[in-house]
Specification:
Elements lengths: L3 H15 L6 E10 L11 E2 L1 E14 L4 E6 L8 E4 L13 H12 L8 E7 L9 H17 L5 H14 L8 H7 L5 E6 L4 E6 L5 E7 L11 H15 L13 H7 L6 H25 L3 H17 L5 H12 L4 E7 L6 E7 L3 H16 L4 E5 L6 E2 L1
Parallel strand pairs: 4-6
Antiparallel strand pairs: 1-3, 1-13, 2-7, 3-6, 4-5, 7-8, 9-11, 9-12, 10-11
Helix pairs in contact: 2-3, 2-4, 3-4, 3-5, 4-5, 6-8, 8-9, 10-11
Amino acid sequence: MIDQKMKTAVLEGFEKTFGKQEGTKAYFAPGRVNLIGEHTDYNGGHVFPCALTIGTYGAVHKRTDRQLRFYSMNFDKLPVKNTSLEELVPSEDAGWTNYPKGVIWAFEKRGFKLPCGFDMVIYGNIPNGSGLSSSASLEVLTGFILRDLYGFDVTNQDLALIGQYSENNFNGMNCGIMDQFAVAMGKEDNAIFLDTADLSFEYAPIQLEGAKIVIANTNKKHKLTDSQYNARRSACEEALAEMQKEVKIRGLGDLSVEEFEAHKNAIKDPDRRQKAKHAVYENQRTIEAVAALKAGDIKHFGQLMNASHVSLRDDYDVTGVELDTLAEEAWKIPGVIGSRMTGGGFGGCTVSIVEDGAIDAFKKQVGEAYKEKIGYDCTFYTVEIGGGPAVI
């Protein structure tokens, strides 16, 4: 479901910035929301994200020289960023353009050399800093554009892996595969049940009879590279190493709840043990949640969403007062099937499944309680599940 106004705007933005160019093409890549399975993707567990109909639009024209020129209509106070294929190194000055530059760098690492540069204008309708994967959207968009412009032989799954590699190694963010995979492999009206240990996956239809997915944005910006995210990942890696001395596993996602409880004392530090507990229990919750959805038991799915938030709050310690307020106020409202934080945490958004008749009350009551406690407004979006990247 392409937003024609966004498409028109990005093409007009390109013309205004770089002039009218014959053969300028427009592209789209979605954002994503994760319904359940948080901080499991780098622990070899399961996740259950879906692509959204909001995302990042790009207009691009191939150049004849080695120059790269980038402009974002979302940061319209910033000038055009000029660089070249000889300058693929991360820098603070490059700002948001480190993401497309990182993808070009990762393509070249795979032997896909760009014969010439390009001009690119982007315009996104994912709220910045919301935790709905604006960075993964931009990475997959860039990879999709490179494939289309230069005829590189890569699959959508490759685009996800290249995006993750660039974010890990060019941008210094030690993320798992979920965000890029959900963006690259999105399918309309389906979530993706992905086993991050081996990238096996299946599409699961999301049929919410009489209910909608509502995202609530804390409007507290989070910058994950500067956050506790990498520290959480390190703690899980240490816990895994301790566990591997007692049980033969590749990742924490290999453990059942029973196995974890039997061997958890192998993890010496209590805080690290709590982090590992979340990874194991959240993985099992995700498997159970998808089974509940397939059985048409949306009520149980919602209960597992709530339990996921509690674990992220109490065991993994990544929620914070803003996300807790949104989730805990949502739980009080009849007609809210489930509500939890989504994304890395420390800000960003909650995702809720809300019965149609309760949506107005949900927005009003949660919104008022949030403003009273936090001091500023949250923002609500009723979202639809969309497809993956596309030429538009």
